[in-house]
Amino acid sequence: MIVITEDTFEQFLQSANESSLIDLHAVTFADPFGMTGILETGDLLRSEGIRKTIFLPESEEVLKYLERMDFFKFAADYFTLEPSLPGIAGKYLRSSYSDVLLEITPIEKSDDIHFIVGKVKERGRAILAKHLHYGERAIGGFVVALSEVCQNIVEHSETKGFVGIQKYHFQNMDKNVVEIAVMDIGIGFRKSLSQRFPLKNDLDAIEKGLLHGASRFADAGRGHGLNAVRRFVNEWNGRLSIRSGTAKLSIIPRWSRGKKTEENLTYFPGAQIHIMLPEIRKFRKTRSPGIFLTRSFFYASIESIEEQEIAVTRYNLYRLLKEELKNGSSDLVTRPSGQAIRKRIECELEKEEEGAVIALDFSKIGIIDYSCADEVVAKLLSRLLSDEYGDRYIVLTGLNDNQKENIEVALERKELSVMARMRNGREMLLGRLNNYLRETLRFVMENMSITAKDLADALEIEANTSGTRLLNLQKKRLVKRVEEARDGGRVWVYEKIS
């Protein structure tokens, strides 16, 4: 083998299984997939009580690159290296990180993902903006996608894994490409999903997980992480492949090559995920948030909001994150982190008075991935609508566009909705709501407070119909209902909450 990449991984596995030593003398190139693949092969051999010798590449350039990607930091745990201390000229050691988004990094627990996300955010803006021409929305999507694929190891593999990310210039395309490799040798897709689904084979399991959002967990909020990663890769014309067991499923853009499905491969446990994202044209226009979320929002008058402020209790999520996780992160990533924050919010909610409006403040939060959005927002709202928190109300505030999009995914999965205010002051509805209730909510927002009669007169509908609409909005905790004395009687008044 001259190169070790996804394309030559089968050949490498066969050689590693058949020979007592692994000869990399002639290797002139190894990408993150190749490097993590070698390490995971060594980990698998070690689990079987086998320790093989690797003859390292003769090329100083390859050795330099392997060292810069921290390959040797882990390789000695699994293999006997020949030579044991690669002779790399001192001037090359750590000479440049310009193309490395993330050295090979182990993934074993939730805090590892916070570390990975923080490191990639730090380097990613320079590399992704300069070499791939990504804007803030694309960079945010990249980091969220990375978080989700890494979480599969923590939540589903029942073991640890590795991730590595690198930027290359593809000569045949004359384009820069970023590659992400995430691998483990855990239980794999088939064993994970077979607890809930009848599966024909490994390929069937990968298809259900990637294309249909299947999860080993029954909760409706589960399974959308990989689905969302697939959508992100498609949007940015990327390539995605997942190998597990004896099968591989790939999403292949026009600029790449390969087979969409492969079966009867050399058996290798766990899951091996490979993402390639190409440089985009500098003048490409990304979809505006308004177009992207056409089903689910409207804007209220900013002026009217400022004139008539609503009393709310603000929960600073950044402060809660610091107090609960104590890992220095400003990002809401991973399901365990989301669970910790949600439980803290629930404790605080118990102290609030009946009728209180709680604003979850995201203004100092970095990214929020799909898993955390489900735990912190969707599950909280589901329990709120089930009356677990009494007569209280929740709104979101301080959102940026990336946070809004990811929260939207979690809400739509469970057919929920919530009022939100963006960082620029725009107020909108996130999630799903039918057109009749949307029209009714708009009327409440414009008038601050109304009665069923007010709505019936304005929209020229039956009084019973207007009352039902308003009551349904109150049950969804999108408006408040208070009883007032008017014209010598008692009447229900419905008020905006944000």
Notable traits:
alpha/beta; five-stranded mixed β-sheet; Transcription Regulator spoIIAA; elongated; 498 residues; Arc Repressor Mutant, subunit A; 23% strand
SS strand fraction: 15-25%
What is the third-level CATH name, the topology of the largest domain? Arc Repressor Mutant, subunit A
- On the 0 to 100 scale, the average pLDDT is 88
The overall strand count is 20
Task: Give the oligomer, counting copies of the same chain as homo and different chains as hetero.
Answer: single chain
**Helical residues, percent:** 40-55%
Q: Gyration radius, to the nearest Å?
A: 26 Å
Give the count of helical stretches: 18
Strand pairing plus helix content: what structural class?
A: alpha/beta
CATH class of the largest domain: Mainly Alpha
- Order of the strands making up the biggest sheet: 6-7-8-12-9-10-11
Cα-to-Cα separation, first versus last residue: 63 Å
CATH architecture label of the largest domain: Orthogonal Bundle
Dominant shape: elongated
Q: Could you name the ranges where pLDDT drops below 50 across 5 or more consecutive residues?
A: 91-97, 283-308
- Domain count, please report it: 3
Major sheet size, sense and barrel closure: 7 strands, antiparallel
CATH H-tier superfamily of the largest domain = Winged helix-like DNA-binding domain superfamily/Winged helix DNA-binding domain
